[in-house]
Amino acid sequence: MRFLRTMVLGAVFLFVVWMVIAAIASYFGAQLVPGQVVPNSWTPPKSWSEWRDIVIVFTAAFWLIAGVVMIALLVALVFLVLLLRRVIRENAVPAIDSLRESLDNIRGTTEFAGETIASPIIRVYSIARGVRSGVGAIANLPDRIRGRRKKGRRK
Asked: What is the pTM of this model?
């Protein structure tokens, strides 16, 4: 691919250099191509059918160029898809595996913290709340009994 690109760029460069040299030489009156090789015999088309033929030829040339460009774009797209698949396979899969290991580590850490820190605190708080409720129930027992009697008399 690099060789082809180098050859095309080299040909374009040589053509541009030749055109610059020809322009400079023609400015000073010299001719790089003798007049007998390329005679000045071009005349414009004389009928509509000749114009039609010229338009058909140019249209066909443009369609040919468009086809070549589309094929080149298709080849580039296929190359890009293959490159993207390789990059994903080589880089994304190990990154996802590493992320999965990190998530497992975090899950284990949170389970450990829940069992060693939160669970004892919850147990102590629930015991304290239960004792407080029990003491409150015993302390308010006479008031509850009186309240029931008052409610019973009203009936």
From this structure: 0.39
**Token match 């605190």: residue?**
121
CA–CA separation, 95 vs 71, rounded Å? 35
pLDDT per position as a tens digit, 54-76: 899 999 999 999 999 999 999 99
Among 45, 70, 66, 69, residue whose Cα is nearest residue 55: 45
- In sequence order, what DSSP letters do the residues of 65-92 get, joined into one string? HHHHHHHHHHHHHHHHHHHHHHHIIIII
Residue-number span of the structural domain to which 1 is assigned: 1-38
Residue 22, classified by CB atoms within 10 Å of its CB into exposed (0-12), middle (13-18) or buried (19+), is middle
- For residues 20 and 57, state if they share a domain: no
Tokens standing for residue 59: 């249209």
